[in-house]
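Collaborator request, handled under Task 6.
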Amino acid sequence: MPKKGGKKGKKGPALVTDAASLAPFNVNVRDIIATPLGVETTVVGVKDGALMVMWPGGLVTAATCAPSKACNAHELSVFGYNKRPASAHIERSINEREKALYEHRRYDKPLPLTARINLPLGKKGVARGKTGLDGTEKYEAFQAYLSNPSAPRAGSAPAGKDAKKKK
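Structure tokens returned to the collaborator:
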């Protein structure tokens, strides 16, 4: 009779995601790390003292080929691994939000949490904020500015010293 199920073996220690274990690498969970290959990976935690990252295909591995030698941020940078700037994290957040909005419209998946944020001006110029004020005139003034940026703005401050002298 054949055995059912796959191999059963030791899984090893679990990933640790607390700030104290990530501190030597100067990263947090979900930070983006640029590899020497040019691929961007995402930090998922620490296992056995090695930084664990998730590659674009979903594979979770140690950041370097020699995890025992890269135990802090300086040693990772020697191998060519560098933390991406905040702009990369912002771009990722925007892309994830746009993807979630698309999946909501197309596949009826839940809206992202940021979809409920009320912006001050909508397409029709109505302020949707908590104040309930009508922003139509502000929206129209902005559209007039976009159509002719060199025209003086209505309700703006004087242009400078010359504007005071003309009066």
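The cover message to the collaborator said: "Residues 118-148 form one domain. The chain has three domains: 19-83, 88-115, 118-148. Please let us know whether this matches your experimental observations."
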